[in-house]
Here is the input.
Amino acid sequence: MAAKKGSLITTTTENRKLPMEKIRNMGIIAHIDAGKTTTTERILFESGKTYKYGSVDEGNTVTDWMEQERERGITIVSAAITTFWTPNRPGSVPQEPHRINIIDTPGHIDFTVEVERSLRVLDGACMIFDGRTGVEPQSETVWHQADKYNVPRICALNKLNLIGADWEGSIISIRERLNPNAAPVDMPIGLEHELHGVVDLIEMKAFTYSGTEDSKLTEEEIPEDLLGKAQKYRAELIERVAEFDDETLSKYLDGQELTVAEIKGAIRKGVIQGKFFPILGGDNRMPTVQRILDAIVEYLPSPIDIPPVKGLNPVTGEEEERKADENEPFSALAFKINVDPHIGRLVWLRIYSGTLKSGNTIYNPTKRTSERLSKLILLHADQRELVEETYAGEIVAAVGLKETITGDTVCTESKPIILESISFPEPVISLAIEPNTRQDQEKLGYAMNRLGEEDPTFKVKTNHETGQTIISGMGELQLEVLVDRMKREFGVEATTGAPQVAYRETIKKIATGEGKYIRQTGGRGQYGHCLLRIEPLGKGEGSQFVSEIKGGAIPQEYIPAIEKGVKETMENGILAGYPMVDIKIAVYDGSFHDVDSSEIAFKIAGSMALQEATKKAEMILLEPIMKVFVSTPADFMGDVIGDLSSRRAQILGTESRGVLQVIQALVPLAEMSGYATTLRSISQGRANSFMEPSHYQEVPQSIAAQIVAKNTSGGTLRQGSNA
Here is the structure.
């Protein structure tokens, strides 16, 4: 029986502890609207997890459980759910059940943090493509994110039953734009409304089904008109995968016929190595989903198939590894935080080694603290199941960890290890937010802290000149959703300003500056004196602070105070109030007073020295540049390009994709305000766009001067919408 939202389901022992080779930790990733959530729904239904499948359009899906997700028809937060699957194709011998831990991820670039942290802890992924368009812009983004974490993948072409389906064109786009070593293991029988089955290119059998939702696979002989094409693709598949297994390669080179088991074994080895990507194809009807489930079990790795996780011993500083073994010392990575209204703070953990029991005390080497967890929970989207123990290779949530945040390692204190953390992109857009009442002020602070814990790309700071609270994120949609959550979940009534671009400040030259802070007030005075040298670093290198003090010119205990003063000044900016980036700061000389010197004096001196140095270092403003993709009918191409050019766009190129023309361009984010509305207007609603952060680059001098003048003259919150 389904539990109420947020409630705990009593634990069951059935299938709780399977051999580790029977576990699959995998994610569903894709471009917006390719069919991730719908595929997940069908997987849950077909595997017996749910008694009916939900619809994104109807707002009743399992994994899109937030109100905002159901209202907007998009995935906003990743959802974890566990199901079981036993491969049982027609005519085959049933296998043992496999446990599949699934994470359904968002497709919108504003919520890329959810994809990033999910891929960090997953062993494999199923990449869904729209079979009409093949590789789309966000497809490339998430593919490269998976490359970054060496996540093995299988591919599935969806929507081949819809008008415009292009099976072969989609395969070509995967090979040309993502990885050339991809090949189909299925071939559709029919396309568009005539799609009614697939040819299994490994077993060389045809499996057909009727057009009804609950139809089952029926094994048949391959249609005569498809036999030659199937043989061609099968030969190509075997040629690509034989190299991944020595025995298979030897038989292939000798001209011997390979068995089904040998071909599947070679495919599995190629997938696990991250060197081969099998492509399935069909639609979201049950027979296709069955084959995706079979492929997940047959090709994606179990926890013991991936290399042991590596990390640093915080005591010795040496690299160590942990195997996916219950007898190894316990280690896990906290990859997500969320707050359940009924249970409290949930810390999502990927267990890499050892076992963890409810009530255990675990060590956080990142924070150097120990914490006792009170409960362990198996996640089922917004449903919770209490478990007493969890094992290596599993994904669970822990209750009671108050200090642990996203990216922290938790482990056994006697065998500490710090695993590789998770890096997140910097925000590119911000807006001011003001609570309507004093009571809202208190609730706003609490809400922002909670949401900041959940989403590492959500940043909050105070503008000290105006007293405004500024929230920043990856896009307007993300901030809109977060402000809406503040109102619904935390009861915050607030007014927001218009979205503002998150500029950055940096320097172009090496320069030095001196800061001397001396105050005498009758008693003990204040004395701090330091000299700094600043120099530009490369794009994206961040900022560094180093001490080059020799001979005790400044006592060591005052160096952190100088660093603090420098960092606070950099955070608040000097030129126009934006954070400073890509700068190396070195304190190389100074002086102190035996009695009057203090940490506060050196902190102020560090700030003064940095401000003086930047006056000589040719400060500039940097602005976020977006990679923009516009799909438009050819009739409107000239108008679309003309409008982009008026927005300071750099057109990178165009390509034909079916009946549409796709324009790629680099455009400053500051020029993209209201673009979606303008695009609809000039294309009669037939064009659409997608954009993602690309890089930061220098703002043209004339525009930078306007921004500096506006920001240094002071300003008030531009009234916008009520939260």
Observations:
- Residues 224-241 form the longest helix (18 residues).
- The chain has 16 helices and 39 strands.
- The radius of gyration is 28 Å.
